[in-house]
Amino acid sequence: MTTKYAAAVQTMMGTKATDPLSWVWQWYTHWTPSPGKSAEILRLFGPSGNTLAQQMWNTCQPHGGGMNPDNFLPWHRMYVYFFERIVRKLTGDATWTLPYWDYTDPARQALPDAFYKPGGATNPLYRPNRNPGVNDGTAITVGNGGPGALNLNSMKQTNYSGATGFCNALDGGLHGNVHVFTGNTQGMGSVPTAAGDPVFWFHHCNIDRVWASWNKEGNKNPTDSTWQAQTFVFVDENGQRVVATIKDFLDIAPLGYTYKEFLSTPKSAPAAAAAVASAAGATAATLRVASVPQPVALTGKPVSLPLQQAPAAAAAGALASRSGQTYLRIGGLKADEQPGVAYNVFLDLPAGQPPTADSPHYVGTVNFFGVIAHTDGDSHGSHGAEGDTRLLNVTDTLAELARRNLLSDTPTVQIVPTGEPQAKANATLASVSLVG
Ligand code: C2O
């Protein structure tokens, strides 16, 4: 499948960008790199423009900013679905299907061989704009939070919608981490350039598999008819315009495909919920908050934020209970540009202990992939006044820390960059709380 894919990518890369079946057109459907959509349409089509490009390009949801986070999964399912049909036709093999990159398996966290062996222009799947080590076959988690940064904790969310739902948790967690761990800010690590890397599609096939698996476990997609009626424009394998409706992309069976293996929701240790409740002193509430009077700058240095017992008023506005799970909620994430690094998060890491992912205090990794707003040109700062939210499931970590007596009465949260962020990134966060 991958060999045939490489040949098809080569054909698409050799096809003129004005053809909807070209590599560039398909990439730009996700987002156009600098100098942006209008400039690229002018360059390729002249002043009369092109209606189809106008309708299709820059339509990725919700990474352009100001879009409904619930659109992430169906839009990318549509994108991958039509792309697969295009590649299938180019291979001439009616049985061809898009492979998925199974990085949630700790043994498969290196870029698949075909994408870097051989390197250079002779390999249509090779791209130079990947992070150091990635094109040498080093696991993408090395230096980026370790194998646990690619976990399936988002599947523990039983609601689909909103900032704290499964869709956004998967988008901002596993999905974004794979982007920024794999590519630099000229490649997979930034929205406008991400779909120019052929591994984008293997990544999104796997994200689609996570969604299908979550549904297979009995979790339900939104039923709101206004949401389901939203449409997006793509082209089929003949280059013909198609209008796809969300309601037709909520279930894979009618689309005629399935996965060889589905994933399961990770199970918390049975004792975890009880241990967490006693460690944190409450359930189904905002347990602790960090006081963050003004946005905290996430520079190249670690920051440490003390968590205080939440006042009763904060507890009242807490998240609905999620079957005994406890989360570290990091809110108000903003940045002017992709930092080019991720941030590892620790709970109550004692001073002097190394901030490494094998520490029992490690709770997850935060990325800024979807945080930057992209308009027509390049990045334009963060979208939305509130910024983005990340939910790190800390249920097991808390239970383990409590069991080993490693949790202090006044726990702190440490946020440690994986390297030096780009100078103009200006990454900040506005709130940190422990919620149950
Ligand atoms: Cu719209 Cu993985 O990106």
Could you give a short description of this structure?
With 436 residues, the protein is of the alpha+beta class. The protein is 28% helix and 15% strand.
List the keywords.
436 residues; alpha+beta; di-copper center containing domain from catechol oxidase; Jelly Rolls; 2 domains; 8-stranded antiparallel β-sheet; two-stranded antiparallel ribbon; 12 helices; 14 strands; binds CU-O-CU linkage
Describe the 3D structure.
- There is one protein chain.
- This protein is α+β, with helices and mostly antiparallel strands and 436 residues long.
- It folds into two domains: 2-255, Di-copper center containing domain from catechol oxidase (di-copper center containing domain from catechol oxidase, Orthogonal Bundle), CATH 1.10.1280; 274-435, Jelly Rolls, CATH 2.60.120.
- The chain contains twelve helices and 14 strands.
- The chain has helices spanning 2-13, 23-30, 37-45, 51-56, 72-91, 166-182, 191-194, 199-216, 225-228, 272-280, 312-316, 395-403, and strands at 231-235, 241-245, 286-290, 296-297, 303-309, 327-333, 343-347, 362-366, 372-374, 379-382, 388-393, 412-417, 428-429, 431-435.
- The strands form four sheets. It has an eight-stranded antiparallel beta sheet with strand order 8-7-12-5-3-14-6-11. Strands 1-2 form a two-stranded antiparallel ribbon. A two-stranded antiparallel ribbon has the order 4-13.
- Strand 1 and strand 2 (241-245) form a beta hairpin.
- Helix 5 (72-91) packs across helix 8 (199-216), helix 6 (166-182) runs antiparallel to helix 8 and helix 10 (272-280) packs across helix 12 (395-403).
- The chain is globular, with a radius of gyration of 22 Å.
- The chain starts with a helix and ends with a strand.
- The structure holds CU-O-CU linkage (C2O).
- CU-O-CU linkage (C2O) binds next to helix 6.
